[in-house]
Amino acid sequence: MTTRKDIAQKAGVSVSVVSRALNNSGYVEASKKERILRIAEELGYHPNPVAVSLMTQRTKQILFYCREIRNAFNLELYEGMVKAAKEQDYLVMFHGSLDFKSIRSTMVDGIIFPSEAAAEIYQNMVGKIYRLPAVSAAFGNTFYYPKGMPMIECDCWKGMELIFQYLRERGHHRIALVMPYDISHEEIRIFAWKDQIQYELKKDEIDTYYLGISKKSLPGDKRVLEFGEEREEGDPYIAENFWGKGRLAAHIFQERRLDATAVICFNDEMAMGFLQEIQKLGYRVPENLSIVSFDGTFVRRYGNPILTSLSLQPEKIGEKCVEILLKEINKEPFKYKYKLTPRLLEGESVQKIKR
Q1: pLDDT tops 70 at residue 145
Q2: HSE on the CB side for 302, CA within 13 Å?
Q3: Which of 31, 38, 199, 316 sits 20 to 30 Å CA-CA off 284?
Q4: Burial letters for 31-57: b for 16+ Cβ neighbours within 10 Å, e otherwise?
Q5: Exposure of 73 by Cβ count < 10 A (0-12 exposed, 13-18 middle, 19+ buried)?
C-alpha cells in the first residue's frame, strides 16, 4: 500500500509538504503541488478514511434513520439524498433500529429522519444529551415539531385541499378516507379531511366514512398484527403492511355499504391494496368508485387503472434534507423550515360523474 512517505521520497520533499498538498491545507508551491498530486495518482495512493476522519473531524457519511426501507416513499426519499450527497462527496447510510442510543457509536456527521414523529422520539430519547446535526422531512404535523431541528415540509393539509378541489370539479361529494390509524390519531391528513368533508357529510356520518385500520374498526374476525407477531397461515386478510391494510379497508367499505363515489388513501401502497381488493369484491374503478392517493411514488404506475396521486415530492425532500444538513454540519447559514408544494399527478382512477 502506497503511503505519504513513498510519495515524499519520489517527489524529493518532506512528508509534511505532501500532507499539505494532499489535504489542500497550507501553502505549497504550485508546481511542486502539481508534481505531488501527479505522483500520488501514479502510485495509486488512497488515503485511509479513518485517518482522514480523525484529522478533519468529518466522516463524509450521513445517516438516514428509516425503519420501513421497503416503503416506496422512503426509497424515493433515499434516492434524493444519495443524489445530493454524491455531489458533496458524501455517503448516505440506513439505520433502522429502535435503539437510538446505538447511533452514538455510529461514525456519521449527521442524521436525517423521515417524519416529525421519528425526529421527536429521537430528540426526546437521546437528542438532548447527544448533539448530532439533524434534519427531518415533515408533512404539516406541527404538533410533533421538534424544537431546534430544521424541517423540510411538504404540506399535507394543502394537499388534501387540492385533492378535494380536483374531486369536486369532477362531481364527487361523498368522499371516504382510507387510513392506517384510528380516527382519533393525530395525523394531519385526518384533520384536513374532516375539515373538508364537514360540508358534505352530516356530523354523525363522518365516522362511518372514515375507513381506518385499527383494532376497533376491523371487519369480522380480521385483525392487525402486533409488532413482532408472526402471520397466521391461511388468513389472507391480516394487515401486516400498508398493502394489507388497504385490502382490509376495502372489506370495511363493502360491509358498511357506503354510497361514497370516491376514496382518498393514506399512500400509494395502501391505495394499491384497496384497489386490488375492491375490484375482487366486484367494484369497477373508476366506473363505480374513484380512488386518489397521497405520495405520488413509482408504485402508482402499477395500478390497473393507474392511480391518480398527490405527489409529496419525496426525491426533492430528500435532496433538500441533505442540502440543509450539510450546511448545518459545516456551520453555514440555513433556514429552519422549508416548504415544498405538493402537486397532483393525474392517472386513470378518477371518473367525472354527473350530478
Answers
A1: no
A2: 11
A3: 199
A4: eebebbbebbeeeebeeeeeeeeeeee
A5: buried
Residue 30's SS3 state is: helix
Rounded CA-CA distance 145/113 in Å is: 12
Q: Residue 226: its pLDDT value, please?
A: 43
Distances (CA, A) of 63 to 88, 92, 111, 319: 15, 6, 5, 14
Mean pLDDT of 251-260: 93
Between residues 273 and 103, the one the model is more confident about: 273
The CA distance from 219 to 162, in Å, is 31
Report the C-alpha gap between 189 and 179 in whole angstroms: 9
DSSP state of 114: S
C-alpha dihedral (291, 297, 300, 301), degrees to nearest 10: 150
- Tens of pLDDT along 220-237? 555 554 434 455 565 555
CA nearest to 75, candidates 94, 103, 97, 62:
94
Span 185-204, pLDDT tens digits: 889 999 999 999 998 888 88
211-220, 231-240, 346-355: segment of lowest average pLDDT: 231-240
pTM of the prediction? 0.78
d(CA 260, CA 297): 25
Name the strand (E) or helix (H) holding 280: helix 268-280
Across the beta sheet with 151-154, the strand order is 91-95, 61-65, 110-113, 134-138, 151-154, 337-340
Q: In the beta sheet, which residues pair with residue 154? A: 340
* Mean pLDDT of the region 136-146: 75
Phi and psi at 305, nearest 5°, equal -80, 165
Tell me the average pLDDT across 155-175. Answer: 95
Distance CA 155, CA 119 (A): 17
